[in-house]
Amino acid sequence: MPAIDPKARTLRFKIVYCGTPLSGKTTNLRQLHSKLDPQGRGALVSLSTSQDRTLFFDFLTVERSALPGYRTSFHLYTVPGQVTYNATLQLVLRQADGVVFVADSQMDRQRDNIHAFQSLEANLRLNGSSLDRLPLVLQYNKRDLPNTAPVEYLEFLLNNRPVPHLSFEADARSGRNVLATLNAITQGVVAQFQRAQEQHRDVLREVAAVA
């Protein structure tokens, strides 16, 4: 659930970008940071190593008017893709309201995509959550490269379920569909929050009727 401050009238959602090393997670946040209105987003924090461009997380606050009467913000994180940083992934995923999985479209990276997706699912379970309970958007990145896997194959590997998640073809380096991905996941987490609020109101009405 998002963090709510009734006195300050603020609502804060946490969104985590996951994926294989160098799949384009950090590039997504850099593009978003450059494209969004400076008055509506915060500073971008990025720590790097020689193995991957993100040691711990990137953090970007995007403020939007999502719910009436509340100043709504979305805190965006990325985490390193290497298995050596699995504990970091589990930590950053705690209390996440939504997830973007950035897949590398290159054909020779599909095994890595599968392992990263399995790691995401395992760490959510360790946190008492799952992809059945969280909004997820899949981004098939690096579609500009010549050796990309067909989208149908990526869907079969990563999105083969009765109700598929939203997915986008993207080229994060040029900015293609990075905003569309962000819009989809923010709309997803807000819609889920609104459904939960409505269910809570229904329960309260039922209790009041019985009393």
Question: Secondary structure elements and their pairing?
Answer:
Layout: E1 3-5, E2 10-19, H1 25-35, E3 59-64, E4 71-78, H2 86-93, E5 98-104, H3 110-126, E6 136-141, H4 151-158, E7 166-169, H5 178-210
Parallel strand pairs: 2-4, 2-5, 5-6, 6-7
Antiparallel strand pairs: 1-2, 3-4
What features would you highlight for this structure?
globular, alpha/beta, 7-stranded mixed beta sheet, 211 residues, 5 helices
Describe this structure as you would to a colleague:
It contains five helices and seven strands. Helices cover 36% and strands 21% of the residues. It is globular. Helix 2 crosses helix 3 (110-126). By secondary structure, the chain is α/β, with parallel strands linked by helices. Helix 3 links the parallel strand 5 (98-104) and strand 6. The two termini are 29 Å apart.
